[in-house]
Specification:
This protein has twelve helices and nine strands. With about 350 residues, the chain is an alpha+beta fold. Strands 1-4-5-9-8-7-6 form a seven-stranded mixed sheet, sandwiched between helices. The protein has a two-stranded antiparallel ribbon with strand order 2-3. A hairpin with a 2-residue loop joins strand 6 and strand 7. The chain is rod-shaped. The relative contact order is 0.10. The chain binds 3,4-dihydroxyphenylalanine.
Length: about 350
């Protein structure tokens, strides 16, 4: 009777273990058959009812079943671990033959390409490159540049102010960098300060509310307007090629005296007049002049000993000329089809 029970347990247990395909299931089978309340234990508890002759025989038979089950469970455990590893290796396999996703390599924006060239030229002439704040005090943007209260450029309709009393603003020009330079350096000074500037302009083919300028300034003994023109003409020829035609027109800026604007002959029409130059034949690229004695004085530099010149060029315009770009909006739109050409 007991022998049959043992045989039945062995058969069903070995069968279940052979078909088991998860480690958790294997553990419940072990508990089911070999655990304290398991089936084999239950049979062994009946041993007391047997005769003394039968007891060792059945004991041995029960032990055989136990060790058969134990070794079946052990080898099932090994088999399941191997299968699990196998599955994991299959799941995590990398197919090195699948083509990768192409990474698009960007390029430097043409305006920054032009700026790199401009910086190189000026660094070669001994200029130091300066960086400065875009959020500026009107004290530096206007007062120290000799643009008094009531000067039209200070108007709220032209300038982005942050506060009611017009003290803090987005700089409308890079010229305040002249003042920062004079406040922190001693002559001789040769600086170049590129950066963003902001004005309340509508967007069209030649205007944007944010654009870039490059400010330049030299302060030394015996500096003249001839040095200014010579330097700028040299830079323009290096940038646009020998024989590029420029012209200087008288103008007015509060911080220079005398003041001028420099035009370059239109790259698009060669001076005949076209939409790019608005029919003028010339494109205005910068304002310049001799640093006003009042500005030098406010910065603690004696105008009897030192003189200086300065300019502020429009970087977008310079880049348009350098790469023969017809519309300013192309510079800001960042259309990849346009940018890829440089
Ligand atoms: N800051 C002027 C502007 O934005 C340009 C300028 C004119 C800069 C004359 C200068 C200068 O340094 O000397 O229109």
């Amino acid at each position: 009777m007991m022998k049959q029970q043992l045989e039945a347990i062995r058969k069903s247990a070995l069968d279940a273990i052979a078909h088991c395909d998860a480690t958790e299931e294997l553990e419940s089978l072990r508990i089911k058959y070999l655990g304290k309340k398991g089936e084999l234990t239950a049979v062994l508890k009946q041993m007391g009812k047997l005769s003394p002759e039968e007891r060792p025989v059945m004991g041995q038979a029960a032990n055989e079943v136990r060790s058969a089950l134990e070794s079946a469970i052990d080898s099932a455990r090994v088999r399941l671990a191997a299968a699990k590893l196998e599955q994991q290796l299959r799941d995590e396999a990398v197919d090195v033959t699948i083509p990768g996703k192409p990474v698009r390599i960007g390029r430097k924006h043409p305006m920054y390409l032009a700026l790199d060239e401009i910086k190189d030229i000026f660094v070669g002439m001994g200029f130091t490159i300066l960086d400065g704040p875009e959020v500026e005090l009107s004290y530096y943007n206007f007062d120290r540049l000799n643009a008094e209260e009531g000067h039209p450029s200070r108007d709220w309709s032209d300038t982005f102010y942050f506060d009611e009393d017009s003290r803090v603003m987005l700089r409308s020009q890079t010229s305040p960098m002249q003042i920062h330079a004079m406040d922190t350096m001693k002559p001789p000074i040769r600086i170049l300060a590129p950066g963003r500037v902001y004005r309340k302009d509508e967007v069209d083919a030649t205007h944007s509310p944010m654009f870039h300028q490059v400010e330049g300034m030299v302060i030394d003994k015996g500096v003249t307007m001839a040095d200014l023109k010579g330097t700028l003409n040299t830079v323009i020829e290096k940038l646009y090629g020998k024989g590029t035609v420029t012209r200087f027109r008288p103008h007015h800026f509060p911080f220079t005296e005398p003041s001028c604007e420099m035009d370059i002959q239109c790259h698009k029409c060669g001076g005949k007049g076209c939409p790019t130059c608005k029919g003028e034949g010339w494109i205005e690229v910068l304002g310049a002049g001799m640093v006003h004695p009042k500005v030098l004085e406010m910065s603690g530099i004696d105008p009897e000993i030192y003189s200086g010149w300065a300019f502020g060029m429009g970087l977008e315009r310079m880049a348009m000329g350098r790469f023969k770009i017809a519309d300013l909006r192309l510079i800001f739109e960042n259309d990849v089809r346009f940018l890829e050409q440089f």
